Amino acid sequence: MDNSDIAITLVLISAFMHATWNAVVRAGSSRFMTLALVDGTALLICLAALPLVDVPSLQVWGYVLLSVVLNTVYRLFLIKAYETGDFGQVYPVMRGVPPVLVALFSYFLLHEHLSFQAMAGVLLICLGIISLTFVRRMTAHRLRPILMAVGAGVFIASYTVVDAKGVRASQTVLQYIIYLTVFQSIPIPLLAFLKARTSFVQAIRSHWRVGMLGGIFYLASYGLVLFALSLDAVAKVSALRETSVIIGAIIAALFFHERFGWRRMLSALVIVCGIILIKVST
């Protein structure tokens, strides 16, 4: 397998894990507390792994700190979106915005150029993802979570480009993953502790298993993506990662009892066509 094949495989595995940990957050009675448990688990794992890697250079520290800010704002948008919206609509929007923005950012900031086939694949994946949001008729009540999801998508695209530069500037992929996760996993648990200490302690006691599962999947998911970013074009990796919406649509239907009909099947087919185009362009 060449680097492109490895990257595609890693990203598709990551897509499954990403949809799963997002479903864990959405299913929680308190999205804020559940996300705090997810981040807390990732924090503990990476703190234990710190001795395995060297301290990053000043340049890498800059990328880490910027990514922490972007990731924290993304998480706040994520919480608001899941508090008021259906998983089957919020998740596709949140994941559908980044590929287009990342393609633009990587072109202007990273000077990456995609072939016509690869760009067509990115656009098809975006089209399929966005179309998933129109399975149900849009109303004023559903507009707010959609806007929150768009906001989350903007920050996903931003930190993806920052992390692509950061992981390439690091000594190793593992170094960046560990240091980034340690610092980006602090704000939400800290806010949860300061905001409602008693509720946070109760959430740990009652739902630590769910938080641990979500944290492991979250850490593995983004770790695989960061490794893939070091192997292939950022826009391609970002677009392929958004295939997690297919898994998300299945989760929405099976676990949240949301509608899954021919429109979502058609959207999934469009996404698969986009994956094929990206694959044949390599």
UniProtKB/TrEMBL annotation:
<keyword id="KW-0441">Lipid A biosynthesis</keyword>
<dbReference type="InterPro" id="IPR000620">
    <property type="entry name" value="EamA_dom"/>
</dbReference>
<dbReference type="GO" id="GO:0005886">
    <property type="term" value="C:plasma membrane"/>
</dbReference>
<dbReference type="InterPro" id="IPR037185">
    <property type="entry name" value="EmrE-like"/>
</dbReference>
<dbReference type="GO" id="GO:0009245">
    <property type="term" value="P:lipid A biosynthetic process"/>
</dbReference>
<feature type="transmembrane region" description="Helical">
    <location>
        <begin position="6"/>
        <end position="25"/>
    </location>
</feature>
<keyword id="KW-0812">Transmembrane</keyword>
<protein>
    <submittedName>
        <fullName>EamA family transporter</fullName>
    </submittedName>
</protein>
<dbReference type="InterPro" id="IPR000390">
    <property type="entry name" value="Small_drug/metabolite_transptr"/>
</dbReference>
<feature type="transmembrane region" description="Helical">
    <location>
        <begin position="174"/>
        <end position="196"/>
    </location>
</feature>
<keyword id="KW-0443">Lipid metabolism</keyword>
<feature type="transmembrane region" description="Helical">
    <location>
        <begin position="237"/>
        <end position="256"/>
    </location>
</feature>
<keyword id="KW-0448">Lipopolysaccharide biosynthesis</keyword>
<dbReference type="GO" id="GO:0022857">
    <property type="term" value="F:transmembrane transporter activity"/>
</dbReference>
<keyword id="KW-1133">Transmembrane helix</keyword>
<dbReference type="GO" id="GO:0009103">
    <property type="term" value="P:lipopolysaccharide biosynthetic process"/>
</dbReference>
<keyword id="KW-0472">Membrane</keyword>
<feature type="transmembrane region" description="Helical">
    <location>
        <begin position="146"/>
        <end position="162"/>
    </location>
</feature>
<feature type="transmembrane region" description="Helical">
    <location>
        <begin position="116"/>
        <end position="134"/>
    </location>
</feature>
<feature type="domain" description="EamA">
    <location>
        <begin position="6"/>
        <end position="132"/>
    </location>
</feature>
<feature type="domain" description="EamA">
    <location>
        <begin position="145"/>
        <end position="278"/>
    </location>
</feature>
<feature type="transmembrane region" description="Helical">
    <location>
        <begin position="58"/>
        <end position="78"/>
    </location>
</feature>
<feature type="transmembrane region" description="Helical">
    <location>
        <begin position="90"/>
        <end position="110"/>
    </location>
</feature>
<dbReference type="Pfam" id="PF00892">
    <property type="entry name" value="EamA"/>
</dbReference>
<keyword id="KW-0444">Lipid biosynthesis</keyword>
<feature type="transmembrane region" description="Helical">
    <location>
        <begin position="208"/>
        <end position="231"/>
    </location>
</feature>
<keyword id="KW-0997">Cell inner membrane</keyword>
<keyword id="KW-1003">Cell membrane</keyword>
<feature type="transmembrane region" description="Helical">
    <location>
        <begin position="32"/>
        <end position="52"/>
    </location>
</feature>
